[in-house]
Amino acid sequence: MTTLRIVSLLLACAASLTAQTRVDHSGWQTPLKNQGSRTTCIAFASTAALEARYKRGGSGNLDLSEEFVNYVGKMMWLHPYWSDITHVDKMESQLAATGGGGGVGHAHNFVNWMKVPQESAMPYLATAYPLSHPWDDPWWVESQRNINTFNLDPNNLPHTARNAPAYYSATSLVDMGALGSRDTAAIESALRAGYEVIWDFDTDASATSTNAIWHPAGTVTAGHSMLIVGYDRTNANPANHYFIVKNSWGPTTNPNGMTHVGYDYVAARGINACYLTGIATPGPFNAIRFIGRRNMSFDGHRGTLDIYHLPGASQELWLSGYGVTTPDRRVGQFYDTAGNVYRVNGQIVGDMIQFWFKPTNPNMRWDEQRETPTLGGMYSYRLLDSGDLQDDLAGYHWNNAGSTPAPAYGGYAKRATTMTGTDGYESPVFNNSQAWTPSQWLGEWRLRYDSRDVPLLIDQRNDLLLPVADRATWAGFQAYTFDAALQVWHATTARIDLANSYEIRFDINPAHDAASIVAYMQSWQRGVAAGRTTLGAFGIFEGSLLTRLGDHDFGTFTSTYSGCGAVRPVHSGAGLPEIGRTVTYRVANALPYGGVVLSLGVSDTSWNGVPLPLNLSVIGAYTCWMTAEPLATFFAGADSVGIATWSFAFNQPGMRGIPIYSQGYVLDLAANAAGLLSSNMLTTRLGGSY
Predict the structure, then answer these.
(1) CA-CA 20 to 30 A from 568: which of 106, 163, 309, 660?
(2) Are 43 and 66 within 8 A, CB to CB?
(3) Nearest-CA neighbor of 157 among 231, 73, 235?
(4) 3-class secondary-structure state, position 575
(5) Which parts of 76-122 fold into alpha helices (H)?
(6) Which residues have C-beta within 8 Å of that of residue 425, sequence separation ≥ 6?
(7) What confidence tens digit (pLDDT) does each residue in 396-454 have?
(8) Which residue has the higher pLDDT, 552 or 472?
(9) CA end-to-end span of the chain, whole Å?
(10) What's CA 150's distance to the chain center, in Å?
(11) For the whole prediction, is pTM greater than 0.85?
């Protein structure tokens, strides 16, 4: 018994020793890739590490976008030496088409701000981006705008990369530093604990894609980054001990296509190393949606807003790594139509951005706040998702964003169709020379906020809708918002500030959306308003954008004459009686499954020379009257409860305001000698925008 236990212990020790001399995590790796001719190894090494951690977590072989990691990582870099930024348009970020850097740096980004979509959102470009000038040419170096025109171009940074369904990131890492990158025992320890090691190092002549073990040889030629996934010390000759490495130069002839790097090479060539220890639940990356070029209009002033940086993205590595301790608040740049350029700082929280720039100091450093609590504008915009406004911005700003900011103004920022386009601005509908008056709000508007797109009608002024105490400072208006789900208009009261008639406030009916709107018509772009929306159920602030579509007439249904018979047919209309919408006519109180006729005409005074109303007693339908001209007739069978329906779409703009007279006739042989009963008459007056 004792002998068996000793043998068992010896066998266990031997097995443990074998495990300690060889660790191979190749089975946890996603397929090998090839970076091609580009210097993007750092993106491949760091992304491979992230994919491996997710695979261990049960996500399988994820294929994450190395292109996104490299492109966005380069774009977010900020030059740490402000004294080099000699003018307001001097390059401070990097051209995203370039490569280089460190895989460890990207790993830190994964923990701090970077989230990565899958490969399909931004596929890898195996060959270099075509550039109009060399990357270090003064054409780039002296013009941040030229850099932005490339970096923000949706042909290079596509919409799919900024709006992927899920993004992947890390929650923690262990930074091994320069010493750890050359400490083979420390790297072994991390591998035995179940981690892959991102390794930045110098290459020399021995660095090849063959199956040979790399050993130091000759002069250092370049930097590189790879992922160490195991080691093997089973050979009796220490010169043949090696680390098992996933390289982005494509597979070798070694098992699993891995590269073998000697212990002496690691000890001689290491620059930096780290390993990821935690991963985040995949989710959205709202901040990246702000990145882009937009044409901006605020209170009618126009310019181009380039958002090319996420505040805080440069804090840990590129700034702190160079001894800079001031906070990274950079957002981008604003270019007005007069040719002036301003650096922009701010903050992004969720789907809201707050930013500022300084007319008194256009070349504002990345850490600067707005000028003072009582001087300097503060812009507060939110992302819009409604239809054609995907990822565009709308909100409000103050010229003096202090503790009691006043007054507020509206603004928006929309993407143009091209990077150099001047389109994207909403069209004004009023002459700026006109005096301000609350009546300029009358008409039909398109209200967009969050993912909503809501028709708004401001129909008529009626101060009696307001509390008595408010009538000295506000004008009251009857207004309506259209509920597309129910196909009805919900009434609400809009109020216009009498002192500043560019401001409007109204609530959306709780049955519709339970939201409160505060918006400001732009004084230099009348007929366009922007502001904020508060979603009542959640207390969430959203940006809102209103554009005036034109004047509007409400359509109406009016019933006259009461019909005939012991059980009188009842004729009614449903839907919106407006040009371009569908109207449903209904006749009730018919016989179950009986026949019903609907007549439509444009006169209630005559029919082919016969005066109306016409007493139908002449045909035996006693006490019944024809009151509507039967210019066109339509037959339908009633349902099981005696209701017949017809639907019509009136799409001719020329019919607006013209009354349409309709009447129903129920076929009932027992009712009278004629065998029919007439209904009430319905007058439909079509409304709509114009």
Answers:
(1) 660
(2) yes
(3) 73
(4) strand
(5) 103-112
(6) 295, 297, 302, 414, 525
(7) 888 876 666 667 889 999 998 889 888 878 877 777 777 888 988 998 999 988 788 88
(8) 472
(9) 101
(10) 21
(11) no
